[in-house]
Amino acid sequence: MRYSTKAGTATAGVDYTDVSGELTFFPGQSFASIKVPILDDDEVEGKETFTVLLEAPDKGQLMLGETKACTVTIEDNDTPGDFRFEREYVAVKESAGRVTCTVVRVGGSAGTVGCSYATREKSAKAGSDFVHSEGVLTFGPGVTRKEVTIEVIDDAEFEKDETFQLVLTEATGGAAFTADTDGGSARAICTIKILNDEERKTLLNLMVSELDLDVDSIKLAGSSYWEQIRTCLDFEGGSCVSALLYVLSLPFKVRVRVRVRVRVRVRVRVRV
Fold first, then answer.
1. Among 107, 117, 149, 184, which one is most buried in terms of CB atoms within 10 A?
2. Gap between the Cα atoms of 132 and 164, Å rounded
3. Mean pLDDT of all residues in 226-240
4. Using an 8 Å Cβ cutoff, are 100 and 117 in contact?
5. pLDDT tens digits, one per residue of 166-223
6. Do 72 and 177 belong to one domain?
7. pLDDT at residue number 258
């Protein structure tokens, strides 16, 4: 019997090789094979089909059954891939000045694809804790990694750890986002935690500890001086002469009190 191929959505010479010929069955033979070469290209395509047809010979008693055609589906292995973050959670010290997040392309690298990215505030605020960043990432054929660098603002203040996010959206070129990541198939999210430096925290705690000792000393000294002033100003009673001498000495006592208060007041400024 004769056989041949017929193009469908697949194109002969581009997606497969057009073949034709005759199948010969020898005595006792019940099956035979037809080989059709499939052509591999680098283009991103959907599924395509072509048909292999059988035709009965003009002579002889051979007849064909109901199945005279076979539809072949070519599945494209040149997929654009999906986007995700290499790490969905990143920590960075505030004094580092910047943080880098890596976007990876998995499951394929055919064709040119891209996606948009933008930072999003959480407890960390744009302009005070980090610099807002947005743009577009473009992956050429075979490219599987891209990096986004965000500036972190070091305000030299002691504060608790804070977070913000980097969000990927609007995938193009047939790419999508992996469904098993934070954000689902519609987006990809990386959460970034800004850490206060342990060195700065340790130094500050040490200085605060030392200042507490100084403050205690100042408080004790102040208390001692106040006790002395109060004792000095107290009138224990007595004769009229004693009362007259007490009144005449008050200006000198008040002057002493003012001088003591000036000496006790201490202002401490610490720079970290």
1. 117
2. 10
3. 60
4. no
5. 999 999 999 999 877 666 778 999 999 999 875 555 555 655 565 554 544 544 444 4
6. no
7. 43
Judge whether 270 lies within some domain.
Answer: no
Beta strands in 89-195 (DSSP E): 89-93, 98-106, 113-121, 134-139, 145-151, 162-172, 176-177, 188-195
pLDDT, tens only, 89-136: 999 998 899 999 999 999 888 889 999 999 999 999 999 999 999 999
Number of domains making up the chain: 3
Residue 119 lies in a domain: yes
Residue ranges making up the domain that contains 36? 1-78
For 27, the token pair is 């005595």
Q: Which of 196, 212, 236 is the last residue of a domain?
A: 196
The verdict on pTM exceeding 0.85 is no
Residue among 4, 64, 60, 10 nearest 38 (CA)? 10
Q: Tokens 């076979």 identify what position? A: 70
Cα–Cα separations (whole angstroms), residue 70 to 16, 55, 162, 216: 15, 12, 62, 95
Distances (CA, A) of 22 to 4, 28, 66, 69, 183: 9, 18, 19, 15, 56
Please report how the helices 240-264 and 198-233 are oriented relative to each other, as an axis angle in degrees rounded to 10.
170
- Say yes or no: 148 and 177 in one domain: yes
Residue 16 lies in a domain: yes
Q: Which of 162, 196, 230 is the last residue of a domain?
A: 196
